[in-house]
Amino acid sequence: MEKRRPEEEAAQGPPPPRALKRRHGVCEASCRRKGRRQSSRVAVRWRVRTLQRLVPGGRRLQPEQLFSRTADYIFQLRLQVHLLRALSKLYHLP
Predict the structure, then answer these.
(1) For 83, how many CA atoms within 13 A lie in the half-sphere containing its CB?
(2) Residues 30, 34, 40, 43: is their CA dihedral positive or negative?
(3) In the structure, what pLDDT confidence band is assigned to residue 39 with cuts at 50, 70 and 90?
(4) pTM over 0.85
């Protein structure tokens, strides 16, 4: 297969859609959607675990409780940043 340069691809437009093949009576596009759903679930689980490690006490929380605790933690961190900025202005620190 011949490689095309990006300028040529833009001029010729997108490639034609592939014909959908059937696998065991299921459309290939359906198989791809299921794969995306499964990979997105894995991504969500990974993000929840990461969040559990970042939020103090998060490892023992269920996801619903974790999201509430995360919002509180973000609010607390913002207050700390605000306080530290105020203190640095008070003492004229750069």
Answers:
(1) 6
(2) negative
(3) confident
(4) no
